[in-house]
Design goal:
The complex is a heterodimer of chains A (478) and B (428).
Chain A (H helix, E strand, L loop, with lengths): L2 E10 L5 H10 L4 E5 L5 H6 L1 H20 L18 H26 L2 E4 L1 E6 L2 E6 L2 E12 L3 E3 L12 E2 L1 H4 L8 E5 L3 H12 L3 E5 L11 H13 L3 E3 L2 E9 L6 E8 L2 E7 L1 E4 L3 E3 L33 E3 L10 H15 L13 E3 L4 E6 L2 H6 L4 E7 L4 H5 L8 E7 L5 E8 L6 H9 L4 H5 L9 H12 L7
Parallel strand pairs in A: 1-2, 1-6, 2-3, 6-17, 8-15, 9-10, 9-15, 10-11
Antiparallel strand pairs in A: 4-5, 5-6, 7-16, 12-13, 13-14, 18-19, 19-22, 20-21, 21-22
Helix pairs in contact in A: 1-4, 1-8, 3-4, 3-6
Chain B lengths: L1 E6 L9 E7 L6 E2 L4 E6 L4 E5 L4 E6 L6 E3 L3 E7 L15 E2 L3 H17 L28 H9 L18 H9 L10 H4 L12 H16 L2 E9 L1 H13 L9 H12 L8 E4 L4 E4 L5 E7 L2 E3 L2 E2 L7 H17 L12 E5 L18 E5 L3 E7 L2 E15 L5 H16 L7
Parallel strand pairs in B: 13-16, 16-17
Antiparallel strand pairs in B: 1-8, 2-4, 2-7, 3-6, 4-5, 5-9, 6-8, 10-19, 11-12, 13-14, 13-15, 17-19, 18-19
Helix pairs in contact in B: 7-8, 7-9
The chains are: A alpha/beta (478), B alpha+beta (428).
């Protein structure tokens, strides 16, 4: 016997899009069910943003301990002996954080009044689905449906991830040992974030990238400090290179993996302990009955097509997050989830964001909000730009954040000084981005930032100064 | 030869159907690739869809006014089979023809689309799908998220609100002002004032228009005008007019107020000779006329004409009415003789038809007086201590102050008033 249920809002997927939609819709008094096939929190909490940042932080910690334990120490602090890493311990610590957060999500959803059902939903029509749970099948009929099924790691068919030698990011976040040698296929932000962390943990890292530069989403100037860091830290980068396949060599504990790739029409081979494949993510649009819902896909055929209110072509069915298009970022999904819940409750909302911030947690960190100078010019803007180095910021020096040659760069329209975009690169710059986005959303002019007092000593002063620089009168700049 | 069914392509974010508003082709037409096929109106814009191929149209799937879903058949072509891949359904980017605001949106959307293109998969080693930094174009509306939210809640189109902040930023106060001014937009978008009109139309001033212009300048620049206004109670005159019209013979024209005014002027003019005169500035001679030749300002398709009714003093009411109809008719249809159009000693301009309380008529140089007549209408009037309804006609007059003193001009109008208020006097 299957159980029959009805609700006002049915959400498929409890990732950063789905669980936020569930909480908001329950807050608004709607009868809400959210179905999750795996663990609540989605990729972000379980195998994405959060665990990677935990590993990155641990790697930073280890790197600085290495410095302190070197012969002359560092900053006058020295440690006898060498720090040891127990990767299992690191992963356990990381899992602890993930566990706390996923538990937290469950509690938040429950406390809001929404119901979380663990099981796999399959739609039979646009508003009906059956959910297979461990306790049997539940048939749910909903007035409104929010699809928040997220995305999955893309496998290379000729070298699929076995999570032993060929790893996806998921495997890379649960390593039991720091690999001596790692090859990363795909020099985008996921690969580079993990690459930097593994390098700090002592791995010898090689990056294989198909395009002519790594991190092509960022402009040349802003990714330059990252390229320098990689070089300094002996991370080998092969651009214009295509992976061709892998082969396991050796037996038992001593086995390694040989990666073949093609560079400049020449085949090369490297033998490493692990190959990490980070060539992108693909929206989860199969395996749950999308084909029975009568929903149109976008022109690429990959994503569900939505309008500015996240409505799909089926009435009462919404799609949010990774499954509904680029950028595939958790914070975009959450913002859409919140909005859709409000739309369903009858509020007038539209996804009218001026900017969705993009952050890369490499060493140094990279932040981009709004347009970069080239993009602004392409749109026919007459612009002025200003750049302020972290090396001229007191707080950055005390944090050693200037060591990675970072800077903040502002682009504004020349005629009226409206800020069009802000990029930053440097250690610890990610946390500065909130003010950047606020500036864009508020329609700030350079003068708005210039006339705002920024506390001393903080790195936010560097933003203030970059704005003054754009206006032609930075204080702490030659 | 093969049939090719062209389906309504994806014509914009979130658009699932559109209305056929115009076909540019019909069955049997032979068309080329990129020829315009049809205009489809969606809730966002009207889009002209070009043909993806060349061929002969064999079927149109829908008539003007029909709603058609994206992906459903639109046109069937018979093709020669060489120019087309029958798999192809997607089009070159449709051309958006309406609504500039939407057009902008389209532009940014197409930019986004370009960024969205999936990276080539699997065979090549590629980076992650791009992290797109979504942002605004040049024309983005500057307003904080809170202002944008408020506007949406109030159903306001922010592009219609002018911002008083720096760089035109829209503040809460601007929204307040817009709402207070009743600018709240409900229902259909206000196309009439949401679109700025910027076109101009240059017309060369030639021919009659130039003549009129020169005449007006001559009059207005050389004659120091003074104007004088009066109300005339034509209740009695109206009664008389109605009676005469009711009893007129078949050969007699229908009477308006004008023949009565003409007759009255002819009657009083001997006592107001200074007003029925021509002034030659060069010789400094004013010629007062005993004959009353009345110019009747007449609006024609070609412009302003002043045909003349001669010797009104020698006519009865029917004759003056007939003659006025004849000369103004001749002026309108262009058959007026030079004689019909010259020789006036005083001009009447009828300002009445569309209402109006007063005007400052320009004297028909070299005359020295002009009378403007306004539409008669019923008005509350105090008579013997009571408010009564009377038919009131306003007149506006202008005089050449070099020749006609204020008192003289006023005297003419007062005499006319007396005549028209006691119309029996006209005929005594």
């Amino acid at each position: 016997m299957s159980e029959n249920r009805k609700c006002q809002v049915l959400i498929i997927g409890a990732g950063p899009g789905g669980y936020v939609a569930a909480i908001r819709s329950a807050q608004l008094g709607l009868d809400t069910i959210v179905v999750e096939g795996e663990k609540p929190g989605g990729v972000c909490l379980n195998i994405g943003c959060i665990p990677s940042k935990a590993i990155i932080h641990a790697a930073e910690r280890y790197e600085s301990l290495i410095k302190h334990s070197s012969k002359d120490g560092h900053m006058g602090i020295s440690i006898e002996g060498k720090p040891e890493i127990d990767m299992k311990g690191v992963v356990e610590w990381k899992d602890g954080i993930v566990g706390r957060l996923t538990k937290g999500v469950e509690v938040l959803v429950k406390n809001s009044g929404a119901e979380l059902i663990n099981g796999w939903a399959t739609f039979t029509s646009s508003k009906q689905c059956s959910v297979k749970t461990k306790d049997g099948e539940i048939l749910i009929e909903a007035e409104n449906v929010i699809i928040a099924t997220g995305s999955t790691h893309i496998d290379l068919p000729f070298m699929p991830c076995d999570e032993e030698f060929v790893l996806s990011s998921t495997g890379a976040l649960s390593l039991q040992k720091v690999p001596k040698k790692v090859a990363i296929v795909g020099g985008g932000y996921i690969g580079l974030e993990l690459g930097c962390a593994l390098s700090k943990l002592g791995s010898e890292v090689t990056v294989i990238e198909g395009m002519d530069s790594i991190l092509a989403i960022m402009d040349k100037e802003i990714r330059r400090p990252l390229e320098i860091w990689l070089k300094k830290n002996k991370v080998t980068v092969h651009t214009n290179s295509l992976a061709r396949g892998t082969k396991i060599k050796g037996k038992g504990a001593a086995s390694k993996v040989e990666l073949t790739f093609e560079k400049d029409s020449e085949e090369q081979k490297i033998t490493v302990d692990k190959v990490l494949v980070t060539v992108g993510r693909s929206p989860n649009s199969r395996g749950w009955g999308l084909e029975n819902m009568g929903i149109r896909m976008d022109t690429s055929g990959r994503f569900i097509r939505i309008d500015r209110q996240c409505r799909t072509s089926a009435p009462g069915v919404y799609a949010i997050g990774d499954v509904a298009g680029e950028p595939m970022l958790a914070h975009k999904a959450s913002a859409q989830g919140e909005m859709v819940a409000e739309i369903i409750s009858g509020e007038k909302r539209e996804f009218d964001k001026i900017a969705i911030p993009a952050i890369v947690f490499t060493e140094p960190e990279i932040v981009s909000v709004g347009l970069n100078p080239d993009e602004a010019k392409e749109r026919g803007e007459e612009i002025i730009t200003g750049k302020f180095p972290l090396a001229a910021n007191g707080r950055a020096l005390t944090l050693e954040a200037e060591k990675t040659a970072g800077f903040i760069r502002v682009t504004a329209r020349e005629s009226d000084h409206v800020i069009l975009g802000i990029q930053a690169v440097g250690s610890h710059v990610a946390e500065l981005h909130g003010e950047f986005v606020l500036a864009l959303e508020m329609g700030a002019l350079l003068e708005d930032i210039a006339d705002t007092v920024h506390a001393h000593p903080t790195m936010t002063e560097a933003f203030h100064e970059s704005v003054l620089k754009t206006l032609g009168h930075a204080i702490h700049s030659a | 030869m093969g049939d090719y069914i062209f389906k309504l392509p994806d014509i914009g974010e979130g658009v699932v159907e559109g209305e056929i508003v115009a076909w540019h082709v019909k069955v049997g037409d032979s068309i080329n690739e990129d020829d315009q096929i049809v205009d489809i109106m969606t809730d966002k814009a009207t889009v002209t869809i070009p043909s993806p191929t060349g061929g002969v149209v064999t079927e149109l799937s829908g008539e003007v006014g029909d709603m058609i879903a994206v992906g459903s058949a639109l046109v069937t072509f018979s093709t020669d089979g060489s120019s087309i891949n029958s798999q192809v359904e997607d089009l070159p980017e449709p051309e958006v023809t309406e609504n500039p605001i939407v057009e902008e949106e389209k532009k940014t959307e197409s930019v986004k689309k370009e960024i969205k293109k999936p990276a080539p998969e699997t065979v090549k080693t590629v980076t992650e799908s791009k992290v797109v930094v979504q942002s605004s174009g040049n024309k983005r509306i500057l307003a904080s998220p809170a202002v944008r939210r408020r506007a949406r809640d109030a159903d306001l189109e922010l592009s219609l609100v002018s911002g008083s902040g720096p760089a035109g930023r829209i503040r809460h106060a601007d929204l307040d002002a817009y709402i207070a001014a009743g600018g709240t937009v409900t229902g259909a978008p206000p196309t009439s004032y949401s679109t700025r009109r910027t076109d101009t139309n240059e017309i060369k001033v030639v021919g009659l228009r130039r003549k009129i212009a020169e005449q007006m300048v001559k009059s207005k620049f050389s004659i120091p005008h003074f104007s004088y206004f009066e109300e005339i109670d034509v209740t009695e005159l109206e009664e008389l007019r109605q009676m005469l019209n009711a009893t007129r013979g078949d050969d007699q024209p229908k009477l308006t107020y004008l023949p009565f005014i003409m007759m009255a002027l002819a009657k009083i003019m001997p006592n107001h000779k200074e007003c029925n005169a021509l002034y030659n500035e060069e010789s400094n001679i004013v010629t007062q006329h005993s004959a009353v030749h009345l110019g009747i300002a007449t609006q024609t398709e070609r412009g302003l004409f002043v045909p003349v009714v001669k010797h009104v003093e020698a006519m009865d009411i029917w004759q003056s009415a007939s003659e006025m109809q004849r000369v103004s008719g001749a002026a309108r249809n262009g058959t007026a003789s030079l004689d019909d159009l010259s020789g006036s000693t005083f001009t009447i301009t009828s300002l009445g038809r569309d209402g109006g309380l007063g005007a400052t008529p320009i004297i028909n140089h070299p005359e020295v007086s002009i009378l403007g007549v306004h539409k008669a209408r019923e008005m509350p009037v105090v008579k013997d201590g009571k408010i009564v309804v009377r038919r009131i006609m306003n007149v506006s007059s202008s005089f050449d102050h070099r020749i006609v003193d204020g008192a003289n001009g006023a005297a003419l109008v007062q005499a006319l008033k007396r005549m028209l208020e006691y119309p029996a006097l006209i005929f005594m």
